[in-house]
Design brief:
Blueprint lengths: L7 H4 L6 H7 L2 E3 L6 E2 L5 E3 L18 H9 L4 E6 L2 E5 L6 E5 L4 E4 L5 H15 L4 E5 L17 H7 L3 E4 L2 H11 L1 H12 L31 E3 L7
Length: about 240
Amino acid sequence: MTTNNLHSGQTAWLGAGNDVDDAWRGFVATWPQAEIRGADGRVVWTMAGYEFLQDEAPAPTVHPGLWQQARRNLAHGLFKVTERIYQVRGFDLSNMTLIEGERGVIVIDPLTCAETAQAALALYRQQRGERPVTAVIYSHSHVDHFGGVRGVLDEQEAIRQGIPVIAPAGFLWHAVSENMIAGNAMSRRSQFQFGHTLPRGVCAQVDCGLGKNVPHGTITLIPPTRTIEKSANAM
């Protein structure tokens, strides 16, 4: 996969300003269009189709605030947050955070599906080396923060090596309740909330607010092996 280490040409039409600088601060590298395909060749995720956002002036059919947010959300790739902390953004609805340790890398919130998570980790490793995953942390029970876990970690290998999967107390109950028991209702809600079944355009899907769109991949889960029961102040 070709890696693009320059974003100036991609974003020249975004204009100038602190928010543009903030969106691209720490940029390291990306893939063209951030395109990700499944094993069957099907496109799971792509940033293609949002060329209409090249216009700085909002389309009359789109709220100006959403238009600006949508333009900022075009930033995608690997970003350095600070020393030893990186994020992959724009490869999914959510972001993956990676913390470099002495023995490998800790993955926080492995995205929505295995395909995008695997691609995000591959991009990171292209730039930072073949660090093994030494822990996974789920920040909470929404599917875009755990569904890609099997793209970054093999469960049996994790068991053999004692690699922890860490989550807040009650995580599994809430994850099952939301995505299994209430799965149909949540799926319908997401269609209205994000419009991800619509074509991309000024009269259809523009942005999801927190990210560009919803990936169409394989949702997975590895149950937590450790849970956080108390805050640090309560210990």
